[in-house]
Amino acid sequence: MSAPEPLRLLRLLAYVLVVPLLGVGIATVLRGHADASFALELERSLTPGAPPRTKPLTLAELCAGPDADTYQACNGDAGYRLFAGVSIAAGAVGLLLLAGIALASVAARIDRRLLLTLFRAELYVAATVVTGLIVIHALIATVSMYAGVQAVLPGTPMLFGGVILAGAFAGVRVVPPAVFAAVRPGRVFAFGGRVTREQAPDLWRLVESLATRLRARPPDAIVTGLDANFFVTEMPLQTPNGPCDGRTLYCSLPLLRILTVGELSAVIAHELGHFRGDDTAFSQRFYPIHAGTSAAIQGLAVSGSGARRIALLPAIAIFEFLLHRFAVADGRHARERELVADQASTEVTSARVVATALVKSHAYGPLWPDALEQATARPVRPGERVPNASEIFASAASHAAGPALLDGILERHTPHPTDRHPSLAVRLDALGVSLQDVAADALRVAPVEPAASLVPTGVLHEEALSLIAGLSRHPGLDGREPTPND
Length: 486
Hints:
It is a single chain. The protein has 2 domains: 5-44 and 58-182, no CATH class; 192-283 and 322-473, no CATH class. It is elongated and about 115 Å long. By secondary structure, the protein is mainly α. It is built from 16 helices and 7 strands. Mean pLDDT is 80; it is low at 477-486. The protein starts with a helix and ends in a 13-residue tail after the last helix. A 4-stranded mixed β-sheet has the order 2-3-7-4.
């Protein structure tokens, strides 16, 4: 569970400001101590019986004079002032970076094109600034610790300073590669296989007919698989039987078993609506960077321990802030994209059919993990029939279909590998259909003509994918990895 927003902000500010404030505090204490020592020495240097000074001369006043360079004490005072200045600058730069991220994320809410441009720019700026801050914070912490130790135990060798600096420079080596990796072209993995026109001519005809009616670009490939969702993407899609490039439509084999052909048409029309609106082209550019940044944060979080991990805490906190702020900005655009695609779907079906398909995917989708778990719970012995995970899902859906299944689903969101969806409540409201209006239709999960009938090879795909899932969980009956001859 993530921390509440105020607590998360306080933690972020602490990571950015604690070390600079420590540096300012240490510099202030050291200057005060030096000034007191100077005043004491000055008092001792006075000739006995000489009249007392009406205005004591302080170290600051001495060092502000034209002959400051001739006094050794002024060299130390200049060092303290420089240390305080660097600490203040480090804190200011950290705050300016956070303010820049916040302002850029606000601007990104206005225009989706700004979202991509500003996110990429802020990512590079943050990487550059954070790399510098790691080094500066380490230097401030080292000097502060050295000063503190020397004040208590003069002459003590400063061993911890080297550890801090080593951790910081190790962190510096980690941050840039992690960030540059975030902007590399991404690839989505889907647990499924391509379906050709020869294998599923009716499905292809339906998809191309819907694309023509919507004046949308048809997909270059159709993939059916064992994930309980539908999506379209223009990102390279990796599947167990090879990659798919170009525009790809992914169809869920488990859900095809409980959807009617009309409901499947509504789902496909929604997905094609993304092609019509060029949403997939945007996702192709933005979401790999977003996902890469998330992966970079996770990589930084586990990249080390001890001083190295401590040195990376500000970087992790700042990148998390960047990711969170732009996720909020994208959430607004994502809601609009999904609602527009839902409306596109109503152009070739009806609001009621679209709503029924939405309710089914939200209500029965959560049953899928248990079905897959049941299908792969134990290794398949030679001669045994491979458990069909999709078939198990359909059976579970049939048993679960009842009014209680619809409780609490209005706040659920459809999962997607590269995008975000608004809640079911928001989508039904935009369609002008209530949950009660379509509840009866949504609880019918054994249609006379299921959408699965459009994929004659569907059962073969289901069994093959179920077998792959089982083998990945149980590599070999004797515990060894399978070989090509197995």
